[in-house]
Amino acid sequence: MPNPTELLNRRYGVDAVNADVSWNDSLNTLLSHRSIRAYLADPLPSGTLEILVAAAQSASTSSNLQTWSVVAVEDTNRKEKLSQLAKNQAHIRQCPLFLVWLADLARLTHIAESRGLPHEALDYLEMFLMATIDAALAAQNATVAAESLGLGTVYIGAMRNHPEEVASLLNLPPHVFAVFGLCVGYPDPSVAAAIKPRLPQSSVLHRETYRLAEQDEAIAHYNDVMKAFYSAQQMNIPGDWTEHSVKRVASAESLSGRDRLGEALKNLGFPLR
Ligand SMILES: Cc1cc2nc3c(=O)[nH]c(=O)nc-3n(C[C@H](O)[C@H](O)[C@H](O)COP(=O)(O)O)c2cc1C
What is the pTM for the complete model shown? Predict the structure, then answer.
């Protein structure tokens, strides 16, 4: 098992945290996370998908409503089409298993209708948010389970670039929305994937009340850490984290088509009242 101090230091890019807790396999898996964007063609052992879904279903779910589902895509043709809808990301084609995590209000609609009962609350933004949170918690449990089995993963938010086309490709009924995808497979060991540093805890951890202005120092420090990370990884990212991040939110165009998400959700049966 890697040294916990080393894992923590890699996560923050510096000597970071002293804690009087005993290290364990779960912490090791969580702290070792890195997204994987190059996969071997090797198939997954049988039963892997079912274990990942059991882990996903073990996550907490709001009011036990279980307002999520997942579509497991292994078909080469379908992965190719999904990749095209997600900016041609090669890892979607390459991974043996592509999971599409769904905010799913169709099941509740269906059971209400099957008993002739009203389901007006499903039209509200709150229920869409609940289903999206449920899907994210489930997916993250599956991600951690996959990583604990030596598999690699990467989330694919670009599933939201063309929501109606994704829905049609996966035969989603109304009231179901693909929140994101997740590539799963064995990492290609010839392609290095480093642990990416995160912001210092002093910018994300607030004690008792929130403080914004006090984060400047931590952010400046993180800019230095990330500049060093980009150059160590030979990543061609101009500027620092602040510059890179601000560019991502500069205009509606930087949303890669997701600026029309509200309209797409209405088309998919989410009135978002
Ligand atoms: C909801 C979500 C959507 C993401 N979408 C993409 C994506 O479309 N393509 C991609 O290569 N990475 C995607 N990522 C991965 C992030 O870029 C990655 O998690 C982040 O840079 C931190 O790196 P790490 O996961 O290696 O620590 C996504 C991550 C999340 C949580």
Answer: 0.97
Among 204, 228, 232, which residue's Cα sits nearest to residue 218? 204
> Which residues are bridge partners to 102 per DSSP?
69, 178
Q: What is the pLDDT of residues 6-49, one digit of tens each?
A: 899 999 987 667 777 889 999 999 999 999 999 999 999 999 99
Selection from 181, 177, 155 nearest residue 165 by Cα = 177
Question: Is the CB of residue 154 below 6 angstroms from any atom belonging to ligand 1?
Answer: yes
Ligand 1 contact via 196 beta carbon (within 6 Å)? yes
41 in any annotated domain = yes
pLDDT tens-digit map of 235-251: 888 889 999 999 999 99
Single residue among 134, 168, 191 that ends a domain in this structure: 191
Pocket test for ligand 1, best of 10, 154, 179, 196 (most atoms within 8 A of CB): 154
Q: Which residue puts its alpha carbon closest to atom 9 of ligand 1?
A: 156
Query: Which residue range forms the structural domain that includes residue 29?
Result: 1-33
Number of folded domains in the chain? Answer: 3
**What is the CATH number for 135?**
3.40.109.10
**Can you give the three-state secondary structure of 134-171, one letter per residue?**
HHHHHHHHHHHHHHHCCCEEEEEHHHHCCHHHHHHHCC
Does 71 share its domain with 184?
A: yes
Q: Evaluate whether 162 touches 257 at the Cβ level (below 8 Å).
A: yes
Residue to mutate, 35, 37, 248, ligand 1, most ligand atoms under 8 Å from C-beta = 35
Regarding whether 96 and 20 lie in a shared domain, the answer is no
| Ligand 1 atom closest to 158 (CA) | 8
Are 117 and 17 members of one domain?
no
Helix (H, G, I), strand (E, B) or coil at 77: helix
Which atom of ligand 1 approaches the CA of 35 most closely?
Answer: 26
Residue 263, in any domain of the structure? no
